[in-house]
Amino acid sequence: HLSPQLPRRIIYTVISMNFDKLPTYHQLPVKPDAPAGASWGVFGENDELGCLNFLTPEGLVDAARLVQSGKIFRLDAKIGFAKPPLFGRNAVAHRIHPLGPFANDDVLDNYNTQESSQWDGLAHVGHFKYECFYGGVKPGEIKSGPGGRLSIHNWSDKFAGRGVLIDAYGYRKSRGISVDPLSPDTYTLEELKAALAAQGTTLKPGSIVLVRTGWMEAYVDSTQEHKQSLTKFENIKSIGIERSREMVAWLWDHRVAAIGADNPAVESLPFDLGDENALHYLTLPLLGLPLGELFVLA
User: Fold this and answer.
1) What residues contact residue 5 under an 8 Å CB cut-off, 6+ apart?
2) The model's pTM
3) What confidence tens digit (pLDDT) does each residue in 45-57 have?
4) Residue 159, exposed/middle/buried by CB under 10 A (0-12, 13-18, 19+)?
5) Residues 135, 46 contacting (CB under 8 angstroms)
6) pLDDT at 8 over 70
7) Is 37 left (phi over 0), alpha (psi -120 to 50) or beta?
8) Helix (H, G, I), strand (E, B) or coil at 92
9) pLDDT in tens, 96-139
10) Which residue of 30, 213, 223, 243 is 20 to 30 Å from 38, comparing CA positions?
11) Do the beta carbons of residue 248 and residue 280 sit within 8 Å?
12) The pLDDT of residue 16
């Protein structure tokens, strides 16, 4: 809060989150009118952050202490890496607009924010059965500009924390287990747990989890004919993580802030858009758990 007596000083209080007092997944919902498995109301009536509330100042400090070498790794795929773009999305067009003899602007035309690596915001997918988005927000409330709900700009100063890589693909390969990332295969919850154990990695509240499925590497090495076929949603086949309430219960009970992968949907593709247990429905509209897609993890 700004103090009128001290206009140049900012007075603030950091309130720690008691993770132990939060409900478990099987204790959800806390609101009587919310669906089973919905976290609506856990973080307040009008919350727009969902599981990003698990990211705390204390967690950020702990994450910073893990830095040793100072190396920087690019995790985002280059814009335009998929030629043609997946799912039939627009291909970005880049042009340089001269401002004068020694000045230029970069201009991007037809840019679809899901053309490359990205996080699904809480306004990206609602639940078809309950006809709403996270927190019970109605479709008419999703709009650009003032008054719009669940906009991703709410994350801009909050999405930072301890990253945890689960190398599910490497785990299978090291044990001689067959894996075809370009098939609708599934990494089970037990495999993710086993991969973490093999790595000696533990989940802590506020972890941002990234799962290496092997799909991105396989896509890059695939033929142009195969890439051309992926302009249609129904043609994309991808390995992914298990879609089940057991999976999301594990993520919620470990207070995972967000989960991403190196594949197009985190879960395997194709999936039935009418399946209530699709990961996109169990996470985004019910738990407020962001899904990240198409990261470079190898």
Assistant:
1) none
2) 0.91
3) 999 999 999 999 9
4) middle
5) yes
6) no
7) left
8) coil
9) 999 999 999 999 998 888 889 999 999 999 999 999 999 999 99
10) 213
11) no
12) 66
Q: Which amino acid is at 226?
A: H
E strands, 31-102, where?
93-100
Query: Residue 125 corresponds to which amino acid?
Result: V
- Tokens for 64, please give them: 């910073």
The CB density around residue 96, as the number of other CB atoms within 10 Å, is 9
First-residue to last-residue Cα distance in the chain: 44
Give the whole-angstrom CA distance, residue 24 versus residue 287. 12
Are 243 and 268 contacting, i.e. CB atoms less than 8 angstroms apart? Answer: yes
pLDDT of 1 reads 38
Element (H, E) at 194: helix 189-199
Contact by Cβ (8 Å): 150, 48: yes
Is the bond preceding residue 32 a cis peptide, omega within 30 degrees?
A: no
pLDDT 10s digits, 246-290: 999 999 999 999 999 999 999 999 999 999 999 999 999 999 999
**CA–CA distance, 219 with 271 (Å, rounded to integer):** 19
Give the DSSP letter string of 240-257.
Answer: EE--SHHHHHHHHHTT--
* Residues 74-90: b if buried by 16+ CB within 10 A, e if exposed: ebebebebbeebbbebe
Average pLDDT estimate for 28-36: 96
**Alpha-carbon gap, residue 268 to 154, rounded angstroms:** 28
Q: Are strands 186-187 and 240-241 parallel, antiparallel or unpaired?
A: parallel
